[in-house]
Design goal:
The chain is α+β, with helices and mostly antiparallel strands. The chain folds into two domains: about 5-150, NADH Oxidase, CATH 3.40.109; about 165-280, NADH Oxidase, CATH 3.40.109. The protein has helices at about 5-10, 25-35, 60-65, 85-105, 120-125, 150-155, 185-195, 235-250, and strands spanning about 45-50, 75-80, 110, 130, 135-140, 170, 205-210, 215-220, 255-260, 270-280. Helix 1 packs across helix 4 and helix 1 (about 5-10) packs antiparallel against helix 8 (about 235-250). The two termini are about 25 Å apart. It binds flavin mononucleotide. Flavin mononucleotide binds near residues 200 and 234.
Length: about 280
């Protein structure tokens, strides 16, 4: 199995961390991931900072603000992206690649777009006027037992389940489910889109295949969800995550291609077109 496919299958939100510190060489490897993942398909610059709170007192770390969702974390990845077209998708795409890299290093993470105090983290990355700070993630070794809050969160979001293939992937329109045999080798790439994390586990991605090697990515918005979190659009971040999974797995499976703006002439109802993959 390829490294990224394995990381996608293994990744899970970790909200409870062990006291074991992260080794210096692993911290450096994480910072390397930041440098390698600074650009997404829409071209908005993305940057990251590794914030280490190891020297701080427990009380201070607590006040940093994750509203009690994260337990025991001493380090965080903070992200910033230049505001503009495709910023949320680019952020999701780049940050997920960092998260999968961290997973490969044996480290736990948790996407957080809602339950953190934005202003205090924005200061840590010295976000400028034109930048947004859509998400952060704790990073460290997973604790061996999930906290009560962690378990409640998972149950509330239904984190252990994913929508079935037939509800996500379609052929030549929005009604006909896509047969696995008709994907032209992209079945694993799509399966890995399906396994991805999403805000509140809403899984808003939909993909329509149109002819050989052309896959259109759409956002099916959860009603009211865009207003739940101010200033950032988490479901577009989810779309960026889906794009990264598809591309990473396609490349690992030796399928050449790239992202294009090619909105098809089909009735997508209220779904929002995002981007298309075209096989080379
Ligand atoms: C964009 C985004 C934002 C998220 N925001 C939060 C958050 O604010 N707090 C939190 O505890 N989990 C958050 N999550 C984690 C999701 O709840 C989690 O990915 C989903 O329930 C699936 O569970 P899994 O990651 O363990 O597979 C977020 C995930 C994504 C992709």
């Amino acid at each position: 199995m390829g490294l990224m496919i394995e990381a996608i299958r293994r990744r899970v939100s970790v909200r409870t961390y062990a006291a074991r510190p992260v080794e210096e060489d692993k911290k450096l490897a994480v910072v390397d991931l930041f440098r390698a993942n600074a650009a997404g398909p829409f071209g908005q610059p993305v940057r990251f900072a590794l914030v280490d709170f190891s020297e701080m007192e427990r009380e201070e770390v607590r006040t940093l603000g994750t509203y009690g969702t994260i337990r025991g974390a001493r380090m965080y990845i903070v992200s910033a992206v230049r505001d503009g077209r495709g910023a949320m998708e680019d952020l999701g795409y780049c940050f997920e690649k960092v998260i999968l890299g961290a997973t490969s290093l044996g480290l736990g993470t948790c996407w957080m777009g809602g339950t953190f105090r934005r202003a205090s983290f924005a200061r840590r990355i010295a976000a400028s006027e034109g930048e947004l700070v859509p998400a952060v993630s704790p990073i460290g070794y997973a604790g061996d037992k999930r906290s009560v809050m962690d378990r409640l969160f998972r149950r509330f979001a239904g984190s252990d389940a994913r929508k079935p293939w037939d509800e996500l992937f379609f052929d030549s329109g929005m009604t006909e489910p896509l047969a696995r045999e008709a994907t032209g080798g992209y079945a694993t790439a799509l399966e890995c889109v399906r396994l991805g994390p999403s805000a509140s586990n809403k899984q808003p991605w939909r993909v329509v295949r149109q002819g050989d090697g052309l896959f259109h990515f759409y956002l099916k918005r959860t009603p009211g969800y865009d207003r739940m979190v101010r200033s950032t659009d988490l479901q577009l971040v989810d779309m960026g995550i889906a794009l990264s999974h598809f591309e990473l797995v396609a490349r690992e499976d030796g399928l050449a291609g790239g992202w294009v703006q090619a909105p098809p002439d089909l009735d997508a109802g209220s779904l929002r077109y995002v981007l298309s993959w075209r096989a080379a």
